[in-house]
Amino acid sequence: MEAVAEPGNLAGVRHIVLILSGKGGVGKSTISTELALALRHVGKKVGILDVDLCGPSIPRMLRAQGRAVHQCDSGWVPVFVDQEQKVSLMSVGFLLEKPDEAVVWRGPKKNALIKQFVSDVAWGQLDYLVVDTPPGTSDEHMAAVEALRPYSPLGAIVVTTPQAVSVGDVRRELTFCRKTGLRVIGVVENMSGFVCPHCTECTNVFSRGGGEELARHAGVPFLGSVPLDPKLTRSLEEGGDFIQEFPHSPAFQALSAIAQKVLETPAQLS
Amino acid sequence: MEETPHNCPGTGSAQAGRGAACQGCPNQRLCASGAGEAPDPAIEEIKEKMKTVKHKILVLSGKGGVGKSTFSAHLAHALAEDENTQVALLDIDICGPSIPKIMGLEGEQGDQGAGLTSDSMPVFTQVHQSGSGWSPVFLEDNLGVMSVGFLLSSPDDAVIWRGPKKNGMIKQFLRDVDWGEVDYLIVDTPPGTSDEHLSVVQYLAAAHIDGAVIITTPQEVSLQDVRKEISFCHKVKLPIIGVVENMSGFVCPKCKKESQIFPPTTGGAEAMCQDLKIPLLGKVPLDPHIGKSCDEGRSFLVDTPDSPATVAYRSIIQRIQEYCSLHRPEEERTSLVPETRGDMDASSTASAS
């Protein structure tokens, strides 16, 4: 049964990209944020939808924590995180009364909120909607894929770190994509090496090579490696605009290349 | 934003699922079926089963990728170094079961019979009863392990299950695995504060959990999630043994100078523990050997005994043992999860699968 896209809040969104992993802590939210900023830097209007209900990281990364969410006729108004209003964000983080408040929900309630996030946020006109997800292959992921299916997402970027323990989980995520009919745009290997700031020796803190091998094994494109950069971490922690502050960082080059590949990915024929 | 409808009658009330306020609540059908009223019989069965288990420790975070499984595995290894101590390691991360790989047990099927694929009906309903129950996979005579990873026939198999099915698996693991006489049961959890966490606390409610060890990394993006996990522990009255700050500094193998890969921009775990008055069990630095040992399924405590990370781990594990020895195993508290209306979802009783 073909799902028909209803006109509505996603009607003005040209491309939807999901950021998945199977593994926690590999940098999905970081990559989501940086991809959004990289797309903005080449003139695109981008929305970020943070469906990690238990651990919503993105508001803080973009210095938007505590911002109020307003309602309009079409639903929730996403929060703009920049002056030029090129990047908008919706996250459960905005809806919590206290930042340390835990969202201790079982699956059905999470599913209900994710459906609402997909259909009831008034995104307006967007070139790209980047959807950040929590780790795993469960309620949130199924809800997001089902809710977004009628809008023919461009696909998913799957993030891993180089080591086998991560790759072990991410293989399962690739199976999830196959089973749910979600195209994989490619694999990103994050935290790929650390360059000591004192002596420039590069250490493979989380092993090496896993991401590229995984892409090859699964027959999907390898989009690139992003190295560990403490300046990046500090900047994101403090909500700085990383792309503007660190144009010469090796991480910046990697992310821009990844953004370019996303721009070149053709939309799927529905 | 409200987590339950205005005037939610409560999941245990006679009006559950039937009141006007219930319209549109995603739990309406569940409550109306009466599932919210009767306590799950499994809770008593698990209490019985857990009588042979002296100490139960949950390893939690809120954040993914901070080293829960790494820590759980090495806690198990360290405790099992004493051959007179019986150790059990239970991995309830259903979607991302890392423990088999970290323990070097990948490819083991255990005694559960045919494997499980995500397409099929849950295999546990078919291999359910066999005398004393499922057999854990034994790494050593005194170290048994159970994980959904052992039930999967291929490393590519994905477990694409919604909450209720995951809860069923966890119930099975607690009720049907024949752990035998155990000194320490360590439960490794996935990131978050959701089905798995609620279920394990609810199913072990009558059996008394010694406490939770909470893992974090130094940066605020982790601490932010960990504070939520601590709040979850308080809500369900789960004692906190303490916090471990992992990936705390990196020493370059070449020049030996220290860098902060994950900077503690808001004071790290130390500041958070001081604020929340929770013990900081210790800080573990980043050592590339840890990842390597885990990938190869070996204990890094044995591989690199002189690493500062090993020293830190051993000190933390000793503190955990000391905490547990202060808790008499036969002491049983009535620590049923309270029904905190408006605060938590499907609170006091486990939902039916």
Number of DSSP strand runs of chain B: 10
CATH topology of chain A: Rossmann fold
Structural class of chain A: alpha/beta
Number of helices of chain B: 11
> Can you tell me the residue ranges of chain B where pLDDT is under 50 for at least 5 consecutive residues?
109-129, 331-353
Helical segment tally of chain A?
A: 9
Low-confidence segments of chain A, given as residue ranges, are: 1-5
What strand line-up does the widest sheet of chain B have? 3-4-2-5-1-6-7-10
How does the major sheet of chain B shape up?
A: 8 strands, mixed
Number of strands of chain A: 12
Strand order of the largest sheet of chain A: 5-6-2-7-1-8-9-12
- Taking Cα atoms only, what radius of gyration of chain A do you get, to the nearest Å? 18 Å
Helix content of chain A: 25-40%
Q: What's the helix-strand series of chain B?
A: HHEHEHEEHEHEHEEEHEHHH
**Relative strand content of chain A:** 15-25%
Mean pLDDT of chain A: 85
Average pLDDT figure of chain B = 81
Structural class of chain B: alpha/beta
Main interface: chain pair and counts: A-B, 68 and 74 residues
Q: Compute the number of structural domains of chain A.
A: 1
Write a brief structural summary.
By secondary structure, chain A is of the alpha/beta class. Chain A is built from 9 helices and 12 strands. In chain A, helix 3 runs parallel beside helix 4.
